[in-house]
Amino acid sequence: MSVDKTSYKDKKVMSIGIISELTGLSERKIRYYEERKLIFPERTGRGTRKYSFSDVEILMEIANQIEDGVQTFEIKKEMTKRQQREERNKMIRGQINAQFNIRN
C-alpha cells in the first residue's frame, strides 16, 4: 500500500465554483489568472478544473496585489523569481545533505 505524501494544502480537489466562493473572485477572473500563467489548476478527464488550498492562497495574494495596482506581468515576474530562488535553495540543501550524508 502506497501512501500519498502530498500535503492536504496541495491536493487539487476543489472546483472553480468553490474557489470563487472562497476567494470572492469571479470564475472569469480566476480563468484569466490561469491564462496569464499565474495559477495552474489540474484538469479532470472531462476538462473540469481542480484547485487546492495552496491555489486559494495564491489567488488571494494575486487579488491583493492587483488591488494595490500591480500588473499581472509584474506578478508573474515576481512569482518566477521566487520559484527560481526556491529551486536553487532546494538544490543547495540537497548538495549539503549529500556532502554530509544527511537523510531526510
From TrEMBL:
<feature type="domain" description="HTH merR-type">
    <location>
        <begin position="13"/>
        <end position="81"/>
    </location>
</feature>
<dbReference type="GO" id="GO:0003700">
    <property type="term" value="F:DNA-binding transcription factor activity"/>
</dbReference>
<keyword id="KW-0805">Transcription regulation</keyword>
<keyword id="KW-0804">Transcription</keyword>
<dbReference type="GO" id="GO:0003677">
    <property type="term" value="F:DNA binding"/>
</dbReference>
<keyword id="KW-0678">Repressor</keyword>
<dbReference type="InterPro" id="IPR000551">
    <property type="entry name" value="MerR-type_HTH_dom"/>
</dbReference>
<dbReference type="InterPro" id="IPR047057">
    <property type="entry name" value="MerR_fam"/>
</dbReference>
<dbReference type="InterPro" id="IPR009061">
    <property type="entry name" value="DNA-bd_dom_put_sf"/>
</dbReference>
<dbReference type="Pfam" id="PF13411">
    <property type="entry name" value="MerR_1"/>
</dbReference>
<protein>
    <submittedName>
        <fullName>MerR family transcriptional regulator</fullName>
    </submittedName>
</protein>
<keyword id="KW-0238">DNA-binding</keyword>
